[in-house]
């Protein structure tokens, strides 16, 4: 062993522990805030459940097709899991609402640790929602499951991570919470619409279907469709998640370049 | 005794955007261990911006030199900055807010002891498990200070630390700042009221139009200011009164006092049934200095 090996490994171990500590700090604080504010629970869990129960397959164009109710439920779950965009953006804006942004500028944590810690609780919540709704649809709503839960988890994780990266990007390029919220709702509705989360893509005009290819929703639903009604082929699932992760990487990279801890935002309410 | 310089800024110029109006022009300041610099300036003079530039928390065009000498401590551990706006998460308890920063800056192993110390230091024990949104403005200010300095930094910057504090809490802050000085901490403080600067500082820097003027030790600034000698008492109707005998520097007051025949004023007061309660020599205050400075 080289005489320098130990200090080097110790230094990297310390850096790793430091990184984990920063992620943990921000994640714990965000989790406490989200849990106590409750609104995230309502939007991520309760709203899709209520809409699925009220609208069911009626709006999806599936009507009485086999497993239509389960498929509609998955659509609403995918749609509302993208509330993660809003909640991730709010997690960053929170420091401006509560005047804690100056502290981040002084402490200057690693951008990556800060971003991961901030979005982790909202991500976990959306991910849990997707798993819960898919499981529920499979057990109670006759949704077939030809693939396995690992494929569902992989697709769900990729989808919510893409939403968080988009939330980070919207935070980095906007100056007020109102702008971020409006943009994120616009994203939620348009991505869901053209991506096939509300109405099956076959029922959409050709130009809408083309737009849909640019959304993570289309690829997530493609993968989930393969796991449920399809043959559960890993190739389809991996290809879809790779596209979603590419979308994520672009959003995260642009956000990271645009974001500076010393930035000021216009509204702090 | 003046300690070593821990943070030094020389010839700082700053504007928020290229080509924008400069907020700071050739500003200089030195923070020494065991000393507390009071930064005095009117609203809009650039006090908060100067603190932002010293902590590198504002974005803009900066020129000049900024040197930090905190030994082995990294910058994030060396400087604590209590901003003017209270920075706390309202849905979290006092303990959680302070703990968040302690864990970020000190790591998990040291955080618990640091939080306990800060809560005791700022007398927050009775509200430690209360959520911040239930607290009064003054209590929030104390929690904000506790969170800002939970990591025990050797350099502490306080922007308007006494805003919203009641008398007792204000006295606590004054006591703490004096204690920090005794421990060798370098302090920089801004305040709305000169009385606060007077109680919290040992040195004075004046900031005007973005330019600093080092006025040196507060004691020497005040020793050149006017004192007032007056008599205070009660009238036959029990209404209190005050009679100014002389105003000026200590020597001037002595000289004027010598000019008054010793028994003249007192006998006049006695004749009309007045009762003399005390003789008052008012020390010079920074308020009058600030008023004069702003008027200039």
UniProtKB/TrEMBL annotation, chain A:
Topology of the protein relative to the lipid bilayer: Multi-pass membrane protein
Domain ABC-2 type transporter transmembrane: 30-227
Subcellular location: Membrane
Main location class: membrane
Transmembrane segments: 40-60, 72-93, 114-140, 152-173, 185-207, 236-259
One Gene Ontology term of the molecular function aspect: ABC-type transporter activity
Keywords: Membrane, Transmembrane, Transmembrane helix
A GO CC annotation given for this chain: membrane
Matches recorded under InterPro entries: ABC2_TM, Nod_factor_ABC_transporter
Annotated PANTHER family: ABC-TYPE MULTIDRUG TRANSPORT SYSTEM, PERMEASE COMPONENT, NODULATION PROTEIN J
Protein name: ABC transporter permease
């Amino acid at each position: 062993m080289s005489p320098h090996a130990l200090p080097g490994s110790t230094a990297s171990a310390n850096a790793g522990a430091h990184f984990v500590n920063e992620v943990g700090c921000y994640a714990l604080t965000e989790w406490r805030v989200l849990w106590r504010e409750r609104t995230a629970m309502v939007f991520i869990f309760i709203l899709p459940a209520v809409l699925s129960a009220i609208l069911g397959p009626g709006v999806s164009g599936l009507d009485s097709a086999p497993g239509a109710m389960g498929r509609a439920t998955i659509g609403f779950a995918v749609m509302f899991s993208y509330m993660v965009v809003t909640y991730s953006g709010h997690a960053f804006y929170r420091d401006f609402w509560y005047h804690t942004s100056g502290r981040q500028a002084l402490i200057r944590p690693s951008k990556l640790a800060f971003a991961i810690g901030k979005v982790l609780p909202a991500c976990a919540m959306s991910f849990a929602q997707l798993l819960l709704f898919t499981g529920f649809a499979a057990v109670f709503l006759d949704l077939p499951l030809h693939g396995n839960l690992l494929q569902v988890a992989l697709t769900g994780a990729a989808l919510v991570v893409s939403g968080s990266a988009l939330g980070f990007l919207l935070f980095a390029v906007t100056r007020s919470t109102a702008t971020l919220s409006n943009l994120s709702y616009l994203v939620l509705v348009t991505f869901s619409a053209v991506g096939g989360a509300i109405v099956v893509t076959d029922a959409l005009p050709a130009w809408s279907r083309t737009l849909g290819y640019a959304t993570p929703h289309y690829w997530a639903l493609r993968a989930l469709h393969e796991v449920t009604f399809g043959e559960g082929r890993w190739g389809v699932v991996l290809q879809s998640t790779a596209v979603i992760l590419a979308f994520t990487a672009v959003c995260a990279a642009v956000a990271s370049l645009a974001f500076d801890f010393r930035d000021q935002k216009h509204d702090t309410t | 005794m003046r300690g070593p310089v821990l943070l030094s800024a020389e010839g700082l110029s700053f504007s928020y955007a290229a080509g924008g109006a400069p907020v700071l022009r050739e500003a200089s300041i030195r923070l020494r261990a065991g000393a507390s610099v009071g930064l005095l300036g009117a609203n809009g003079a650039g006090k908060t911006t100067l603190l932002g530039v010293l902590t590198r928390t504002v974005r803009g065009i900066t020129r000049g030199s900024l040197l930090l000498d905190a030994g082995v401590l990294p910058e994030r551990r060396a400087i604590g900055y209590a901003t003017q706006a209270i920075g706390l998460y309202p849905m979290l308890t006092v303990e959680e807010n302070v703990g968040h920063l302690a864990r970020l800056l000190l790591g998990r192993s040291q955080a618990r002891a640091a939080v306990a110390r800060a809560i005791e230091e700022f007398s927050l024990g009775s509200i430690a498990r209360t959520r911040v949104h239930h607290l009064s403005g003054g209590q929030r200010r104390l929690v904000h200070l506790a969170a800002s300095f939970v990591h025990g930094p050797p350099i502490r910057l306080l922007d308007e630390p006494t805003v919203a504090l009641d008398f007792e809490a204000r006295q606590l802050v004054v006591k703490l700042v004096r204690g920090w000085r005794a421990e060798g901490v370098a302090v920089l403080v801004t305040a709305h009221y000169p009385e606060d600067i007077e109680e919290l500082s040992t040195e004075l820097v004046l900031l005007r139009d973005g330019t600093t003027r080092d006025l040196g030790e507060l004691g020497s600034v005040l020793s050149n200011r006017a004192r007032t000698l007056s008599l205070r008492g009660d009238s036959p109707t029990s209404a209190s009164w005050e009679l100014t005998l002389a105003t000026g520097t200590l020597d001037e007051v002595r000289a004027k006092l010598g000019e008054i025949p010793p028994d003249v004023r007192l006998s006049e007061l006695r004749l009309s049934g007045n009762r003399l309660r005390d003789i008052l020599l008012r020390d010079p205050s920074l308020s009058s200095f600030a008023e004069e400075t702003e008027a200039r």
